[in-house]
């Protein structure tokens, strides 16, 4: 793990709307403004859908996969959780998906992925690609761990995160 700070559980997903203005070009700048050329093409971003079941959350970019889960189980379709890339765009990294029981585990860390695999999680490859930090107008994708149910929950909404944290048994993950 990178750090034990309160940000340790944070991974980044693409922002829903980009700021339109291009960075102003100032002369003699010692700090280079972020170049759009190092960012992914937002037109390529796709929805990461969320389906929920009491105590469990299922995420997929695949309409057929999310439909199957909703129709086969008692999962409720909850809409779009975040927007991510399906292919590796500039400055993005793989978002690994692992599963154990009904728990979906996402990480961008190969180290954490290896550790989790040792605890019995099944490797499900990559869910997509995201920015490893809050660059290119992206927004944090918070990860929350519910110890009571041994389930992880993910959201780009800090209000949603705080509401889930307010229920007993929840702690910020990754710390
Ligand atoms: C500042 O930028 C101008 C225009 O690019 C250049 O001519 C000048 O030499 C620069 N000055 C310094 C101190 O770098
Ligand atoms: C971004 O993707 C769209 C849709 O594929 C394409 O039309 C556009 O040219 C791309 N923009 C850049 C800067 O590559």
Structural features, described:
- Residues 1-25 have low confidence and may be disordered.
- The chain is 16% helix and 38% strand.
- Strands 1, 8, 9 and 10 form a four-stranded antiparallel sheet that branches.
- The chain is an alpha+beta fold and 175 residues long.
- The chain contains three helices and ten strands, in the order βββαβββαβββαβ.
- The radius of gyration is 17 Å and the shape is globular.
- It has helices at 63-72, 110-118, 158-166, and strands spanning 10-13, 45-53, 56-60, 76-85, 93-100, 103-107, 122-130, 139-146, 151-155, 170-172.
- One 2-acetamido-2-deoxy-beta-D-glucopyranose is lined by residues 41, 43-44.
Secondary structure topology:
Elements: E1 10-13, E2 45-53, E3 56-60, H1 63-72, E4 76-85, E5 93-100, E6 103-107, H2 110-118, E7 122-130, E8 139-146, E9 151-155, H3 158-166, E10 170-172
Antiparallel strand pairs: 1-8, 2-3, 2-4, 5-6, 5-7, 8-9, 8-10
The chain binds 2-acetamido-2-deoxy-beta-D-glucopyranose (2 copies).
Residues 27-28 line the site of one 2-acetamido-2-deoxy-beta-D-glucopyranose (NAG).
């Amino acid at each position: 793990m990178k750090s034990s700070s309160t940000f340790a559980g944070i991974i980044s997903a693409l922002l829903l709307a980009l700021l339109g203005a291009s960075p102003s070009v100032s002369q003699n700048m010692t700090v280079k403004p972020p170049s759009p050329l190092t960012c992914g093409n937002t037109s390529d971003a796709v929805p990461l859908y969320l389906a929920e079941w009491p105590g469990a959350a299922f995420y997929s970019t695949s309409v057929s996969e999310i439909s199957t889960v909703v129709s086969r189980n008692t999962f409720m379709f909850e809409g779009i959780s975040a927007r991510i890339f399906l292919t590796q765009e500039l400055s993005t990294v793989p978002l690994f998906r692992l599963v154990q029981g009904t728990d979906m585990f996402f990480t961008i860390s190969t180290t954490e992925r290896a550790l989790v695999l040792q605890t019995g999680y099944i490797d499900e490859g990559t869910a997509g690609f995201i920015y490893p930090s809050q660059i290119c107008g992206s927004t944090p994708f918070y990860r929350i761990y519910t110890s009571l149910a041994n389930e992880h929950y993910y959201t780009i909404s800090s209000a949603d995160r705080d509401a889930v944290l307010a229920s007993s048994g929840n702690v910020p993950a990754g710390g």
